[in-house]
Amino acid sequence: MRKTYLSAFVDHFLTRINDALHVRISVLSLSVLCMLLGFFISTTLSTIPGQTGDWGIVAASIIVTGYERISKQIYYYNQANNYLRTIMYNINNVKIGIIYGLFVDAFKLGS
Questions:
Q1: Where are the domains of the chain?
Q2: What is the C-alpha to C-alpha distance for residues 56 and 47, in angstroms, rounded to an integer?
Q3: Each residue of 16-59: pLDDT tens digit?
Q4: What are the entry keywords (predicted)?
């Protein structure tokens, strides 16, 4: 049986979709793992300074300073090569996980 233009187009389209899904799933799983790591880090960041009671303001200022420095580096390296952009993307996901975890801890304390 001859291969028509339509069947060649469908084969090419399905191959491209399959390749895109394989790459996207690995990136998605790494992003989720980075966010969960950030969530774990936020739990430790909110628990350890809370034990002493005196370090709340100092710890909060260090967290905000670190957050802003990471944001500056991410926006600076936005035009970098692919490898460095991937690393910065994962660090940004950790940062998002930290902020999400801190919000969840704040809601737990408020209720």
A1: 34-110
A2: 10
A3: 877 777 766 677 888 899 999 999 998 888 887 767 777 777 87
A4: Chloroplast, Membrane, Plastid, Transmembrane, Transmembrane helix
